[in-house]
Amino acid sequence: MLMLIMPMIVPLLLPSFWMSSMFTFLFLSFMFTIKSMPMTMWSVSINSFMFIDSMSGPLLLLILWITSMTLFASSKVYSFNLSPKLFVLTIVTLAAILLLSFTCNNVLSFYFMFESSLFPTLFLILLWGYQPERLTASFYFILYTLTASLPLLAMIAILYFFNDSLSMNLSLWASPFISSFKFWWILSILAFLVKLPMFMFHLWLPKAHVEAPVAGSMFLAAVLLKLGTYGLLRLSFLFPAINFSFFNTLYPVAIWGALITSMICIRQTDMKSLIAYSSVGHMGILLASIMSSSCIGWQASLLMMIAHGISSSFLFSLANSSYEIFHSRNLFLNKGMITIFPFLPMWWFVATLSNMAAPPSINLVSEISMFISILSISSSAIILLPILSFLGAAYSLILYSSTQHGPLSTSTTPPTLPNSSFNLMFLLHSIPVLMLSMHPSFIMTWI
């Protein structure tokens, strides 16, 4: 793990630390991809506290890739000298914490890394956020995350008391819960359901996204939400029977929550808020797929984690570029982009295509697989899932057509030329979205 973390720190000591950090993460992601491609079924124990397997491997690659993209998207911080070195240090710290989170072989270490990711994210929102409301958003973020994680800490303490072990291999533990195991199970996964976030526990997410800088939004959507799904997948994989027993409880909340948030998306006027609510909808389907406790459901869930991570980061970076051009995120004011910047609509088209899970994006493969896993358990989903797909396509098309077509708004300041590095960033987002659809087994063979 030091081989990954040390190269992340060294660029901070160089004069050209911004470019060095950006391309270091890009290089590390390429090298990690090349090294892991022949090992789709691999498990490497680094030491007694750390390990990498074919579930955490793709997520480590996602972290490295997204970190590089956040530095591309945040070039304004460097250009306007908004404490750029502190910004890069915060990004590197957050990336290191997330890398350690996905490689922990110790439940208590995972819990502390899980909670530690809160602080760099708060720094990003508070120090580089846009509006005074970022204080309220930070309060919601802390309140939901810390409150929901306390039962998980209690669960860890009780399991250690009974088993004298904190290994992530939970199947080796004795069963201290006979009659009350289901009660403790739901308390344990509460922290992950909030981080996911499941509908009803999602109120912190739109607030955090709207007030965060582009780097915070990209990290939140692409990686931090995946901490919740990762923890849920780990527990579900080791206790499938208990997990499946909660399907009838959580499935209706997940699917109906996805439908409600999809309808909310159609009524949104703020681009970042629309993308944030769409994430809640996608995570609802993912939760139902995990709770199905089927092999294809778990495989599709991991694939969806990667697909959603890339496409949501893509959309937030595009929303940021539109904000820098028109100085507004309002859909009614961001119009006619196709008439002045013909290259940007192409990237918007690819991003919205992946968000609505249209071919040839990797999102299509993951959604079809998740639908199969859900339909194999609940026949009622045959009515709800097509409606959900239709709504997803509807708000994605609204997002695209509202920003690209129509006359230029006269209510905003004159549009400014976007940073030239944006095209490279958008290209680097597009490549995995399209390429992974040709070889989804690179991610789906972890079981």
UniProtKB/TrEMBL annotation:
One of its GO terms (molecular function) is ubiquinone binding. Its main location: mitochondrion. GO terms for cellular component: mitochondrial membrane. InterPro entries: NADH4_N, NADH_UbQ_OxRdtase, ND/Mrp_TM. It is found in: Mitochondrion membrane. Pfam families: Oxidored_q5_N, Proton_antipo_M. GO terms for biological process: ATP synthesis coupled electron transport; electron transport coupled proton transport. Residues 1-100 form the NADH:ubiquinone oxidoreductase chain 4 N-terminal domain. It comes from the Eukaryota. It is a multi-pass membrane protein. It catalyses: a ubiquinone + NADH + 5 H(+)(in) = a ubiquinol + NAD(+) + 4 H(+)(out). Its EC number is 7.1.1.2. Residues 105-391 form the NADH:quinone oxidoreductase/Mrp antiporter transmembrane domain. The keyword NAD applies. The chain crosses the membrane at residues 12-34, 54-74, 86-102, 108-129, 141-163, 183-205, 217-237, 249-267, 298-319, 331-350, 370-400. Keywords: Electron transport, Membrane, Mitochondrion, NAD, Respiratory chain, Translocase, Transmembrane, Transmembrane helix, Transport, Ubiquinone. Belongs to the complex I subunit 4 family. Core subunit of the mitochondrial membrane respiratory chain NADH dehydrogenase (Complex I) which catalyzes electron transfer from NADH through the respiratory chain, using ubiquinone as an electron acceptor. Essential for the catalytic activity and assembly of complex I. This is NADH-ubiquinone oxidoreductase chain 4.
